[in-house]
Amino acid sequence: MLTPLAAALLVLPASPAPRLPPPRPGPSRRARPAVVRAAALRALPRRLELWSPRLAAVESNPPPPSSASPAPDEERAGSGLDARAGGGDGGGDGGGGSDLGWLRAFPHVLTASMANFLFGYHIGVMNGPIEDIATELGFQGNPFLQGLVVSIFIVGAFFGSLGSSALVDKFGCKRTLQIDSIPLIIGALLSAQADSLDDMLLGRFLVGIGIGVNTVLVPLYISEVAPTKYRGTLGTLSQIGTCLGIIAALSLGIPSESDPHWWRTMLYAACVPGVLIVAGMQFAVESPRWLAKAGRFDDARKVVESLWEPSEVEKSMEEIKAVVVNDDSRGSWSDLLVEPHNRVALIGGSLFFLQQFAGINGVLYFSSLTFRDVGITSGALASLYVGITNFGGALVASNLMDKQGRKKLLIGSYLGMAFAMFLIVYGISFPLDEGVAHSLSIAGTLLYIFTFALGAGPVTGIIIPELSSARTRSKVMGFSFTVHWICNFLVGLYFLELVNKFGVGAVYAGFGGVSLLTAVFAYNFIAETKGRSLEEIEMSLSTTTPGKQE
């Protein structure tokens, strides 16, 4: 059974992304809620058509400037960490030096991203010692049970994703991250001390539940805590954390090739990040959006003041208040069946469906055999090469996310993945010198991993919470990741069977075709969110906004 490595962690120019309108500063903080809401809604004269950016946009005439809605500011430009200009939520120094505005949010985002480090670690921890575990626990020679030890992790993650929304809505992101560390720590301890198959399965299942919650929670938390200007760049930290976790597990697993009991040390080590998350999140901030939904506006203001540029605090708080006042009801799963939430949920589920069936799991599984053909017989070493490539792609993505935008990276990523797949198919299917064919396979595999890490990996997790409303964000994320784990499981279950029936070339050609299809999907249905606050995006997408103006 395959490990869920597709969640680990890609630029070609694409069509201009639909732009949300520049915001108008809101009224003074002493304005009545109705005036706040009206001013904020009037600041967004164009409603974004989510299904197809090329369709006619629905426009409304902006009201003339008044005391409650002054003239628009200059449009803010998104930038990476090395930007020089100020502006945006939590912009930099606004001068000619380095922009260090991202440092305010970085410790909080980094702490949360440790949960993704654990995710990557638990992906890689079974890569090498599974045979030793099977021998010691008495199920060696049984590929079904070996696969079950790995795949039970995915089953737990499925249930964790389903239950994540209720936890986040009730306890908030900060407390949920701490609570969720409990099954991660207990599961790692049970697995490390396992004396039977049942103990190992229970431990892996508990770890899976914790990972399922975290994969939903971390990108959601980062999207709500990070200032707009740096949201994309900081959002890639969750993917970088996953890559580092995989590399750490593979590196720590090297002694397992000579020590058959080393796997227990590796699983004990998995407890340490869980303890650090519990301690670290005690000093991290809570999401200001969740605090506002809970009616704790003073606490939300304190968080915004600590993370945002001082000149942006008033406007950001007015936008957050406008969304909360405009829709103060608690979201439910049935909301995903009505506009506009059903469109966002469908797009989120589709992105993860297409991501998994573009073949990331299959490529990662088959990569060890590809490296073996060129003389790299160590599976752990081959996986380490793949992990380092993945990490390099994620670093590049972090620098480009707030410069090029999400849509360009997503399209370019899938086009690169398609090219890589067809390059491998060419090397496999056509009569070439054996050395040339192996070189094409290696180059195609590494190119596929690198381009996946540029967009298909990180952008998918970043853009879904950005497009979701405050009311349904946790549920849209929970639904989307549930689709992810189901597809992850299915690809792992049937990949080898498809290879045996149709051959590697045909299967990889199918992966390339899905990658091309996903690039077309992103071109037509994904809106650019770079440089816009979550509240701007939400009010622009809301089909009920015009009717609620006062």
UniProtKB/TrEMBL annotation:
CDD domains associated with the record: MFS_GLUT_like (cd17315)
Residues of the region (Disordered) are: 13-34, 54-94
Q: How does it sit in the membrane?
A: Multi-pass membrane protein
Keywords for this entry?
Answer: Membrane, Signal, Transmembrane, Transmembrane helix, Transport
InterPro entries to which the protein is assigned, alphabetical: MFS_dom, MFS_sugar_transport-like, MFS_Sugar_Transporters, MFS_trans_sf, Sugar/inositol_transpt, Sugar_transporter_CS
Show where the Major facilitator superfamily (MFS) profile domain sits: 108-530
Pfam families to which the protein is assigned, alphabetical: Sugar_tr
Q: What is this protein called?
A: Major facilitator superfamily (MFS) profile domain-containing protein
What species does this protein belong to? Miscanthus lutarioriparius
Source taxonomy: Eukaryota, Viridiplantae, Streptophyta, Embryophyta, Tracheophyta
